[in-house]
Each structure stands twice: as C-alpha cells, then as structure tokens.
Write a structure and sequence with these properties.
Largest sheet: none
Number of helices: 13
Number of strands: 0
Order of helices and strands: HHHHHHHHHHHHH
Mean pLDDT: 80
Strand content: under 5%
Distance between the termini: 18 Å
Helix content: over 70%
Radius of gyration: 20 Å
Low-confidence stretches: none
C-alpha cells in the first residue's frame, strides 16, 4: 500500500513538472514576438514610455480580475491587500517589492541596451542568465545542482552564443549598451530567483498584481525625469501597447506557475530557446537565411535544455 502511494505521488509530481514545462511554451512564443512589437512602438514613443505603459495598462486589467475574485464568496483567493498586509515577515514583503523593481528595471535596461548596442550583443549577454541564476542560487541560497543539470546549462549557453555569434562584435562605442544588457541579464536572474521564493508564500494572482504595481511606480519617476511623451498618438500603437500589457500579465502568471515545480536555473535555461524560435520565425515568415551553424546551434540548445530538464523529471522534488 505504501509503495502504491509513493508511486502515485511520483506520477503526480512528474505530471506537475510536465505541466510546468508546458506553461513555458507560450512564454517562449511571446518572448520571440515582443521585441518586434516594441520596435514598431518606438516609431512614436521611446522605450521608457513603452515599458511604463506596458506595466501600467496591466494594472486595471488585474484590478478588474481581482474584483471578480473578491466578489465570489467561495473563491480560494485571498483579497490582494489582505494577503499582502497580513504577511508578518518583512523579508517576504521586501522580496515582493523587489520583484517589481527587478522586472521593471530588467525590461527598461534591455530596451535601452538595444538603442546602444546590437541585438546580437544583447542576446549573447542575456544568454548568461542561467549562469547568473545558478551561481547566485548556489552562493547565496545554498542551492545544489546535479552534474547533468550543469552540463545542460553549459551546452545551452554555448549553443545560444554560437547562434548569434556571426553578428556579435566588441567595439568601444557599444560598451555602454553591452553593460546595460549585462545588468539587465543579472536583474532577470534576480527576478526569477525572487519569483521562485515568492510562489511558496503568495498566490500567483498576488505576485502578478504587486509586481506590475511596483513596476509602474518604479518606472514613473524615470519617465518624468526623462521628460518623454507618456502615450502614443495613433490607435495602432495603442493597440500594440494593449497587447504588450496583456501578454505581460500572461507571461508573469505562466512563469510563476512554472516555478512551483521547476528551479529558476532550469526556467532560465529553457528560455534560451526563444532566440532560436525568433530565428525560425524570421526564416519562415521573412525568408531570412539560416546556415548549417545556425541549425547546429538550435540542436545544441535543445540538447542542453533536454539534459537540464531530464534531471528534474527523473528525480522530482516530492
């Protein structure tokens, strides 16, 4: 009887891991498309306003959703404000605030980096995110990792760098943009680690709402100091901003859900697939050329993700 219960528990754990992996698939597609939408929006407003509006538009959407949840007497969700202020651990409240600062700061620095360095340079530096996530988790959070998992990360990172190596260059005029991209990658690592901790203490709804709210408050003074136009002028760009705000909510929900069963290092490694998806979309939609090295890099990323993922599935955390 005990063995049957253990087998059932292991099967359920593997199912949850597979569902967490499935939740990352739409995130990969969104990450591949979002840069294109941001690029189109930059014809009317600069990156500061784009990122600010992306966060701020998410607030009323989440507010309406929270209102619906709170009206349901049998809702399993605690009211957002109640759940936040009932937390007695100041460390967790700080993490909740940091999630918004890290998320907003990462997106802002990434957008800035693209104006001062090449997309290839930025992608190479962001490919180091799994390394930063793993190192921070090991040094500061006492996380342990299997050798196969570490080999998978190494293979995925190297393959991701090879994918964009043809366009990568090191020049003095790009150093500032490269530095911004590097800090953006570190903030992204920090965001995933914070999210991994928060999902054990708060509901997905609470984390998403407060991340967007804090992110909006964090970005507002930057926009005011920069003296930029707050809003776009055409309905087409407004539509794009609305889409960006909606997918911002969706990606945060999917990421938080996936981190309930997957480590932040594994999630960061899987997300290395998005440059490959972008390149394949460009190949299919715009007939851009992909050489043999590109395809080998795709296979390398897949192999790295497989190695990192298989170690998690074979030994689920029960």
């Amino acid at each position: 009887m005990t063995e049957q219960l253990e087998l059932t528990s292991q099967t359920a754990a593997r199912t949850e891991i597979k569902m967490a992996l499935a939740a990352l698939f739409p995130v990969l597609i969104i990450f591949a498309v979002v840069p294109i939408l941001i690029k189109v929006s930059e014809y009317e407003i600069n990156p500061n306003a784009i990122i600010f509006n992306r966060f701020s538009i998410a607030i009323p959407v989440l507010g309406c959703w929270n209102g619906v949840l709170n009206l349901k007497e049998k809702s399993a969700e605690k009211p957002i404000l109640v759940e936040f202020f009932r937390q007695k651990q100041n460390g967790l409240l700080l993490l909740l605030l940091l999630s918004g600062v890290f998320s907003g700061g990462q997106q802002l620095l990434y957008a800035w980096s693209l104006t001062q360095t090449s997309a290839a340079n930025s992608e190479v530096l962001h490919s180091m995110t799994p390394l930063f996530t793993t190192l921070i988790g090991w040094i500061f959070l006492s996380q342990n990792f299997e050798r196969r998992f570490l080999r998978g990360i190494a293979v995925a990172i190297c393959s991701s760098i090879i994918l964009v190596s043809n366009d990568f260059s090191i020049t003095i005029d790009k150093l500032q943009g490269d530095a911004l991209a590097l800090v953006s990658a570190i903030l992204w690592s920090g965001y995933l680690l914070v999210l991994e901790k928060l999902q054990t203490q708060f509901s997905i709804n609470t984390i998403t709402t407060w991340t967007c709210l804090v992110g909006t408050i964090f970005l507002l003074p930057i926009l005011l100091i920069a003296d930029d136009d707050f809003f776009p002028h055409s309905w087409q760009v407004w539509l794009i901003i609305g889409i960006l705000g909606t997918v911002e909510i969706f990606t945060k929900i999917c990421l938080t859900y996936s981190l309930k069963r997957l480590s932040s290092g594994l999630v960061a490694t899987i997300l290395l697939l998005h440059p490959a998806i972008t390149a394949i979309l460009a190949w299919g939609l715009f007939s851009e050329t992909l050489n043999l090295l590109n395809w080998l890099a795709f296979l390398g990323i897949l192999l790295g993700v497989y190695l990192a993922t298989s170690s998690t599935i074979e030994e689920p955390n029960l």
